[in-house]
């Protein structure tokens, strides 16, 4: 029998990382697919895959380096047919996928904002000089130092739970997390203050879940089409074109956010030196059909304003 979207004979295998946030995202995907096709949840099997980024936890991310640190093993399992679809945080995804894989399904986007987390201070501006703030994100480090060069930024790796534990242990007085992760984990009760994009422009694709599939898998294509969110797709097209044009990886501080107003797309972008000593921003608008062009054109403007050497290590 040919593959059919609702075929009950084989469960749809959903590949994911094993962190609580990744599992929540995989379960959300299964729930949306189940609702769209009126299928019971045992139609879906969640398969946990350990990635290099999960395995190497004792070194800063930028040292391990390379794109796809959290995705390579998952994409290999997808290509090998060990899983049927893969659920990803789009923020962690390289702009290009391996031959044979498509990443073009997006769930409705969560809160895009970053949150400042601290037991003692509600706002960054309340923090006394010299205090320690933990983050493993080069973007957040650079943005924080641009606003507060007096603060001491320390490396802070691990999943959401690990980082909250480090805060309780006094390793730092504050940290940042994505609101999307907190919301998806149901952690609304932790001491978080959401930062507006004007104050901290989020990472490209922050808050968006993407689902990857094999290009020739008709069952996956038909199932995923039913849960795709068009607006999120348009916004990510612009943001990821900006990222691709900047040749961005986890090693460069880049921020970007697209919003839609009817058929018009607004895009903001920002690049920073890693020590926060320089920040270049840009904004553009245009029809949603031009999403990719708007992002790419912004990348070229930012690059030419930055000039050679802008991203060279300054720490
Ligand atoms: N780099 C890790 C990562 N990837 C996605 C999220 C949060 C959820 C999201 O932005 O979709 C996080 C953790 C964080 O930044 O707090």
UniProtKB/TrEMBL annotation:
Q: State the InterPro entries in the record.
A: HemC (IPR000860), Porphobilin_deaminase_cofac_BS (IPR022419), Porphobilin_deaminase_N (IPR022417), Porphobilinogen_deaminase_C (IPR022418), Porphobilinogen_deaminase_C_sf (IPR036803)
**Residues bearing S-(dipyrrolylmethanemethyl)cysteine?**
250
Domain (Porphobilinogen deaminase C-terminal) spans 235-303
Catalyzed reaction equations: 4 porphobilinogen + H2O = hydroxymethylbilane + 4 NH4(+)
Give UniProt keywords alphabetically.
Porphyrin biosynthesis, Transferase
Cofactor (UniProt)? dipyrromethane
Q: Name one GO cellular component term.
A: cytoplasm
User: What does it do?
Assistant: Tetrapolymerization of the monopyrrole PBG into the hydroxymethylbilane pre-uroporphyrinogen in several discrete steps.
Q: What else is known?
A: The porphobilinogen subunits are added to the dipyrromethane group.
Its name, as the record gives it, is Porphobilinogen deaminase
Taxon lineage: Bacteria, Pseudomonadati, Pseudomonadota, Alphaproteobacteria, Rhodobacterales
């Amino acid at each position: 029998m040919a593959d059919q979207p609702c075929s009950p004979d084989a469960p749809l295998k959903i590949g994911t990382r094993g962190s609580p946030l990744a599992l929540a995202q995989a379960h959300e995907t299964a729930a949306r697919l189940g609702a769209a096709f009126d299928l019971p949840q045992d139609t879906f099997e969640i398969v946990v895959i350990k990635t290099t980024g999960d395995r190497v936890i004792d070194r800063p991310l930028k040292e391990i380096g390379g794109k796809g640190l959290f995705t390579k093993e998952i994409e290999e399992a997808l290509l090998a047919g060990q899983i049927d679809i893969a659920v990803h945080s789009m923020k962690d995804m390289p702009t290009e996928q391996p031959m044979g894989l498509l990443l073009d399904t997006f769930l409705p986007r969560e809160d895009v904002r970053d949150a400042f987390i601290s037991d003692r201070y509600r706002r960054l501006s309340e923090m006394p000089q010299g205090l320690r703030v933990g983050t493993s994100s080069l973007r957040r480090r650079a943005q924080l130092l641009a606003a507060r060069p007096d603060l001491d930024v320390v490396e802070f790796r691990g999943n959401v739970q690990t980082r909250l534990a480090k805060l309780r242990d006094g390793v730092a007085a504050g940290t940042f997390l994505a609101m999307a992760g907190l919301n998806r984990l149901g952690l609304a009760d932790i001491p978080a203050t959401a930062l507006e994009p004007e104050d901290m422009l989020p990472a490209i694709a922050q808050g968006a879940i993407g689902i990857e599939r094999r290009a020739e898998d008709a069952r996956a294509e038909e199932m995923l089409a039913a849960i795709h969110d068009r607006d999120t797709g348009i916004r990510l097209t612009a943001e990821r074109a900006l990222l691709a044009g900047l040749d961005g990886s986890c090693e460069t501080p880049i921020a970007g956010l697209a919003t839609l107003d009817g058929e018009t797309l607004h895009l903001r972008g920002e690049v920073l030196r890693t020590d926060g000593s320089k920040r270049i921003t840009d904004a553009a608008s245009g029809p949603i059909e031009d999403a990719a062009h708007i992002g790419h054109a912004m990348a070229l403007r930012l690059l030419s304003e930055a000039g050679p050497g802008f991203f060279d290590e300054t720490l």
